[in-house]
Amino acid sequence: MEKNDFNKLVKELEEGIExxxxxxxxRRYLDLIAQxxxxxxxxxxxxxxxxxxxxxxxxxxxxxxxxxxxKGEKAIHILCPIKYRYEEEGEDEEPLxxxxxxxxxxYVFDISQTTKNExxxxxxxxxxxxxxxxxxxxxxxxNDEKIVFTRSLSAKVNGYFSLKDGCIYLxxxxxxxxxxxxxxxxxxxxxxxxKDYDVRLAEIEAESIAYLLLKKLGLDSSSYSFNYxxxxxxxxxxxxxxxxxxxxxxxxxxxxLWLDPHLE
Length: 264
Prior knowledge:
Blueprint: H1 3-20, H2 25-35, H3 40-49, E1 56-58, H4 59-64, E2 76-89, E3 95-110, H5 130-142, E4 147-150, E5 159-161, E6 168-171, H6 176-192, H7 199-216, H8 222-230, H9 238-259
Parallel strand pairs: 4-6
Antiparallel strand pairs: 1-3, 2-3, 5-6
Helix pairs in contact: 1-3, 2-3, 2-7, 5-6, 6-7, 6-9, 7-8, 7-9
């Protein structure tokens, strides 16, 4: 990759991070994470170049599905790592194998740039109605003695994770959806955060992960989650927000592994 091309994409990344945390962009970015296997950097690049992207594949992948790219459409640029190996002489003349990464520009297209009109539904987007959600909560709580219901929480607190005893405390009397969202939020804290972690970053990450997991089940917490996240977003620099995006993707993947065995 030419240096100028690389620098251009780095600038796109920086601008993309700032763009993500404005207005309704953050919700659309999280929706991308729920669908794409791409790295955080490439998800940011996709979002920056095509904010309304909903399903992205390269030219060959679309062609394999029998779908064509519309004439004149401009490709979305992403970074594709290429692993290189080489040998050099080590101690005692034994060959020493070393590896390094280089990047090339990859080209992908959103479904809106193709002849396909409808977005295929995702297999994991299960429609969890009230009965299914109630049963899911029952299964999780039954198998986890570290989840405790309590009446002693203040009006503004729906739950918390205790570093002291490792328990997740949930307020009694909430709706199943609010209870489940709070459980996912506090579970994210329990898996990702310790007492030295920045409190505001921890809240942004935990609520974002809860939103993603609910979306995976076809449930929507956006009316609550994005107002909550917005209250923690002031005065953060690009570096810290970029770090949070990495943790959100990592946490979503880890909590999916925890949640999946409970699903039916």
